[in-house]
Amino acid sequence: MTAFRYRALDAAGRETPGVVEADTARAARALLRERGLFPLEVSSVGQEAAGKRKVSRRKLRAADLTLLTRQWGTLLASGLTVEQALAALIEQSESEFLRQLLAGVRSEILSGYSLRAALDRYPQSFDALYRASVAAGEKSGELSLVMNQLADYLDRRHALRAKTFQALLYPLIVATIALLVIVGLMTYVVPQVVSVFQQGRQELPLLTRSLIVVSDLLRAWGWLMLLMLGGAFLAARRALRAKALRRRWDAWLLRLPLLGRHLRTLDATRFASTLAILAGSGVPLLAALEAGRQVITRLPLAEAVATAAERVREGLPLSRALATSGQFPPLLIHMIANGEATGRLDELLERAARLQQAELENRTATLTTLLEPVLLLVMGGFVLLIVLAVMQPIIELNTLMK
Q1: Cα–Cα distance between 386 and 185 in angstroms, integer?
Q2: Do residues 319 and 336 lie in contact, with contact meaning Cβ atoms separated by under 8 Å?
Q3: Can you tell me whether residue 13 is helix, strand or coil?
Q4: Beta-bridge partners for 19
């Protein structure tokens, strides 16, 4: 006998979920009809579990999650129940993966689980912040409001990532083209031009000889150098899984003049946004700090939040607990202190997050504006060296002929 999970309609037209044991799916449907039920869906529990494991291993795209949350909050605000809202979202979804994901969440809810417990089955698509906010919304009865707040937060986070990518796209294209041009000159153009001078008895200048050595090295061992570079990158990623080495690497990055401040502000923005949503949803501060720690990328800042949580548990105000570490921007500390003093912590955290995001966008725009001419100058410098290396023997030859 095999267990089958079913959804069926009774004589009154009400949908009834449950589990029935039968030899085959056809026998399960027949058994349901004998009980006066009209089966809508019958699936093996084993197959269902395998399908859920497959869906749970995939991650929902950021843009899709933002749109889903916005639509979900709107449907809940219109008076629909969670199950009815999920049914509507499944029906209008065009993505097969999203339909399977929402169907899995709906199946858990129909089985008697809470929405938070249903989302816990899919941690790849719904992170700790999302699930904690949903739990707070269920507890407070303001799930639609929390969903709309989450949608706003996800929208801002996605917009920041998109702006950063767009700002870095052009410099990345310029750097890639410059690298390809230089490699092409070194491996194809330079050898053909310089071979003319090598056939003579003229002693080549030092710059030309150096260029020939580099060109020969690239032509003979360029593939091996590329493989070694890729292997070194993979080895470095593997080594950074060690917590001690990762801590030293992140600490070094945070000490860099421009990049360090940018990374610190980026993590502080994520942390402030997370605390603002959870504090406004009624989540206890210690639980909000734990969720905020999970969205921080740099290990020194995450450890500073963990230490601050311990001090808050001992009775210290959050602003003083975070200020002791010296890891977070002063703007965020002052905003938290003001919020604690006035009782508007969530509002001031939200304001701090918006200010820091605006600072990130302005700094990213400035850095990319400066990066473009720097890349062009570097490319021009390499091309100038190649031209000089080729022209020097010609100039010396003309001088000797005179």
Answers
A1: 8
A2: yes
A3: coil
A4: 5
**CA–CA distance, 82 with 96 (Å, rounded to integer):** 20
pLDDT over threshold 60, residue 278: yes
% the chain with pLDDT above 90: 9
Residue 252 pLDDT exceeds 90: yes
Contacts 24+ apart (CB under 8 A), 151-159: 151/66, 151/69, 151/70, 151/73, 153/273, 153/276, 153/277, 154/62, 154/65, 154/66, 154/69, 155/66, 155/70, 156/273, 156/353, 156/354, 156/357, 157/62, 157/270, 157/273, 158/62, 158/63, 158/66
What is the distance between the alpha carbons of residues 324 and 225, in angstroms, rounded to a whole number?
46
Report the C-alpha dihedral over residues 272, 274, 275, 276, rounded to 10 degrees: 80
Tokens at residue 206, please?
A: 């030092």
Give SS3 for 69.
Answer: helix
Question: What is the C-alpha end-to-end distance of the chain, expressed in Å?
Answer: 102
Residues 113 and 13 in one domain: no
CA distance 316 to 299: 23
Can you give the CATH number for the domain in which 301 is found? Answer: 1.20.81.30
* Amino acid code (one letter) for 227: L
Tokens 């607990």 found at: 321
In the block, tokens 């001690």 appear at: 244
Q: Which ranges of 240-317 does DSSP label H, i.e. alpha helix? A: 243-255, 259-280, 285-294, 299-313
Full 3-state SS string of 315-364: CCCHHHHHHHHCCCCHHHHHHHHHHHHHCCHHHHHHHHHHHHHHHHHHHH
Residues 83 and 38 in one domain: no
Cβ contacts of 381 within 8 Å, gap of 6 or more:
none
Task: Note every long-range contact of 91-99, with CB atoms under 8 Å and residues 24 or more positions apart, other chains counting.
Answer: 95/64, 97/55, 97/58, 97/60, 98/60, 98/64, 98/68
The total of other beta-carbon atoms located within 10 Å of residue 307's CB is 15
In a domain, 32, yes or no: yes
Q: What is the pTM of this model?
A: 0.68
Domain of residue 34 covers: 2-55
Interior angle at CA 379, CA 375 and CA 385, nearest 5: 145
